[in-house]
């Protein structure tokens, strides 16, 4: 069964809706781990109790490691692996998945609604930053782009910031403002590869317009960290 670029897939871990093409995939996705074979594990990795007929092995769906039923008793959503239903996880993985539940339920809405930022082009180290003006920054509905909409009509010769493809981001830094009236508020400094020439690296800085920008900054930082984790997993497979 295929729907919206995804197809239903059943594995030993559970039912998943797997993307059938890159455009329908999430930049935050993680691959389903290979399970550690039962015969390779004699002790629960949590409590260190021996496995036997009564103390059975249970695999965490996020990390693939073996635990007893008590140490693998957390049933949580795992959207990053496209699971349809909550799945069994160990404590360490459950902590991560719980934080990501908040991202999927609240953070994505905040990011797609957007927030106003003063943007500077800082692509040339050592040179004076180039102010680009005030823009509404939003995450696109497919979660693959950060878009910029000017708050007022641009001068004819003005160049707006380019779209940021989240999978092209190579680093993101929180920047705390030190000058009043915005002292203590965080902005973002984003380094990303050019869409055409990937050897070229751009850098833009998003400075908060007011305190209402802080949830957007927090969730954007989380989103870009998750994207980096996803890319690192692809590299090491």
Describe the structure.
- This protein has 237 residues and is α+β, with helices and mostly antiparallel strands.
- The protein has two domains: 2-111, Zinc/RING finger domain, C3HC4 (zinc finger) (Herpes Virus-1, 2-Layer Sandwich), CATH 3.30.40.10; 114-235, Roll (PH-domain like).
- Helix content is 19%, strand content 31%.
- It has helices at residues 91-113, 214-235; strands at residues 2-3, 6-11, 14-19, 58-59, 66-67, 74-76, 87-89, 115-121, 130-139, 145-150, 164-165, 169-176, 186-193, 201-208.
- Strands 11-10-9-8-14-13-12 form a seven-stranded antiparallel beta sheet.
- Helix 1 (91-113) crosses helix 2 (214-235).
- The two termini are 28 Å apart.
- The mean pLDDT is 88.
Name a few traits of the molecule:
237 residues; Herpes Virus-1; PH-domain like; 2 domains; three-stranded antiparallel beta sheet; 2 helices; 31% strand; elongated
Rg, rounded, reads 22 Å
The CATH superfamily of the largest domain is identified as Zinc finger FYVE domain-containing protein 21, C-terminal
Strand order of the largest sheet: 11-10-9-8-14-13-12
Profile the largest sheet. Answer: 7 strands, antiparallel
- Quaternary state reads single chain
Low-confidence stretches: none
Number of strands: 14
Q: Find the structural class using helix and strand composition.
A: alpha+beta
Q: What sort of overall outline do the alpha carbons produce when their principal axes are compared?
A: elongated
What's the domain count?
2
Please tally the helical runs, counting DSSP H or I stretches of 4 or more residues.
2
So what's the CATH class of the largest domain?
A: Mainly Beta
- Mean pLDDT figure: 88
Helix content: 10-25%
Summarize the helix and strand pattern as letters.
EEEEEEEHEEEEEEEH
Q: What is the CATH T-level topology of the largest domain? A: PH-domain like
